[in-house]
Write a structure and sequence with these properties.
Elements lengths: L1 H4 L5 H9 L3 E3 L16 E3 L14 E5 L3 E6 L16 H7 L6 E2 L8 E7 L2 H12 L4 E9 L6 E12 L2 E5 L6 E13 L2 E8 L6 H9 L27 E8 L4 E4 L7
Parallel strand pairs: 6-12
Antiparallel strand pairs: 1-2, 3-4, 4-6, 5-6, 7-11, 7-12, 8-9, 8-10, 10-11, 12-13
Length: about 260
C-alpha cells in the first residue's frame, strides 16, 4: 500500500521504515506481515523533510456565501499528502484566511485550472450530488502532439490501475471502470493541436489516458506522453499542458469559465 500511495520511495525503503517503527498503525501493533483492516489508520514519520517547491499563483475567481472558486496552478496538490503539507492548495487557502472550506472535487497536482470549494456542509452535499449524478459540465484544454484528421472524437474505454499511481485504458482491457471523453480540435499548428476536452465520466487520469489512446497525447506529459515513463517510479513534479477551463452546474447557477487559452 505504501509504495502505491507514495511511490517516490522504493519498496525496500518502506520495508525498512516499517521495521524501524517509522510506519505504524495507530490502533494496534503491526509488522511487515500485518493484514490491513478497513478501520486501520496508517501513520508514518518523516522528520526533517523539505517539501518540494510549488507555484504561488493561486488566485480567487469568484466568491459567494456558499462557495469559493479559485485558480489552481500546477504542479500543486489539492491537499496535504505524501511529500506535501503546507505546499498544497487547501493549506495555502487557510493561510489566505479560508479555514473552513470543503473540497467538492479534485484536480491532479499536475493539472491547473478551476477548483470549486464549498463553505458549508449543505452546499458541499449539493455540489457532490451534482457530480455523482452527472449534472456537472466540465471542460478542459490540452495541447497535444500531432494534428488529428477528425475535428471531433469520442473515446469510450475502461480505465484501471496499472501500478502505483499509473493507470491504463484501452479497448482490449476487460476489467476497470467505463469512461467516456469527448474531444474537439480548437486549433492546430506547428505539429501540435489545442484540444477541448469534455469528460463525461470522472476517472483518474481520464483525459490524459484517452488522448494517448486516441494517438495524440499531451505533449509534455511525463507519464502518458511520447517516451513517457509509466513505471510509476518517476515522480510527477512539473505541470502539464492540461487546464480545467470551465465548470458549469446549472442546478446551482454556477458557471465558472477561466477563458484561458494555452500557449503552444
Amino acid at each position: 500500500m505504501m509504495i502505491t500511495k507514495f511511490p517516490f520511495q522504493s519498496k525496500d525503503i518502506w520495508e525498512q521504515r516499517i521495521i524501524n517503527g517509522k510506519v505504524y498503525l495507530d490502533n494496534r501493533n503491526s509488522t511487515l506481515q500485518t493484514i490491513l483492516r478497513q478501520d486501520d489508520e496508517i501513520c508514518h514519520h518523516n522528520p526533517a523533510v523539505i517539501e518540494p517547491s510549488v507555484p504561488d499563483e493561486v488566485r480567487l475567481l469568484e466568491e459567494s456565501e456558499h462557495y469559493l472558486a479559485v485558480y489552481k496552478p500546477a504542479p500543486l496538490p489539492m491537499h496535504p499528502g505524501g511529500r506535501y503539507n503546507k505546499n498544497s492548495l487547501s493549506w495555502i487557502l487557510v493561510e489566505m484566511g479560508y479555514s473552513d472550506l470543503r473540497i467538492t472535487h479534485r484536480l491532479d497536482a499536475v493539472t491547473s485550472g478551476v477548483v470549486l470549494f464549498a463553505k458549508n456542509k449543505p452546499f458541499s452535499k449539493k455540489v457532490m450530488e451534482a457530480f455523482s449524478l452527472g449534472k456537472v459540465e466540465k471542460e478542459y484544454l490540452a495541447v497535444v502532439n500531432g494534428i488529428p484528421r477528425e475535428l471531433k472524437k469520442t473515446i469510450q474505454s475502461k480505465i484501471r490501475r496499472k501500478q502505483g499511481f499509473v493507470f491504463e485504458s484501452g479497448a482490449d482491457i476487460d476489467s476497470g471502470q467505463v469512461s467516456i471523453t469527448e474531444f474537439e480540435v480548437v486549433e492546430s499548428r506547428n505539429s501540435k493541436s489545442l484540444i477541448k476536452c469534455r469528460p463525461i465520466t470522472g476517472r483518474t487520469h481520464q483525459i490524459r489516458l484517452h488522448l494517448a489512446e486516441w494517438g495524440f497525447p499531451i505533449y509534455d506529459d511525463p507519464i502518458y506522453g511520447h517516451n513517457g515513463d509509466n513505471s510509476s517510479k518517476r515522480t510527477q513534479n512539473v505541470g502539464i499542458s492540461l487546464v480545467s477551463s470551465r465548470l458549469n452546474i446549472k442546478s446551482l447557477n454556477i458557471d465558472l469559465n477561466l477563458n484561458q487559452i494555452l500557449n503552444f
